Amino acid sequence: MIDKPQSSRIDGNEPGTETQSGAEPDDRKYLAAALMVFVAKGDGTISGTETQAMMALLDDQYQMSGAEALEQLTTAIADIAENPDFGISVSNLSAVLTIPEKEDIAVMLLKIVAADGRKDAEEMEKLRVAAEMISIPEDVMHRAFDRYFEETQVLPEEDS
User: SS3 for 38?
Assistant: First the structure.
């Protein structure tokens, strides 16, 4: 039987997902959810559009059901509010990420910044801080921006 996650936590040096049989380290899904919440809250609130975008991104990247994505996001919101050392804890957890995973997360974060149709300075600052927290190299951030613009570029319709 597969254990159902009871709660995700960032807790000092031992981050992971707590299940009925104990903690599972290396929870990339939770890290992505927590960083998206961190960035989305940059302007003070998380809009419905941002919530939908976060759920869709978790589904696309990690094949999470809507319920599982919502649970991860809700837990991340509570953990961020309760954990004054959030940045340090996320930094510790991010040590398991590969460079391609960091790039994928950066693209996801860029999509969250743009989700509500505004690119607020506060959210862009939170994006910069999130990139620092998980040690995304500058060249990887540049590739993430390039990917984001490539994926979201609207091509003009051809005349028939």
Answer: helix
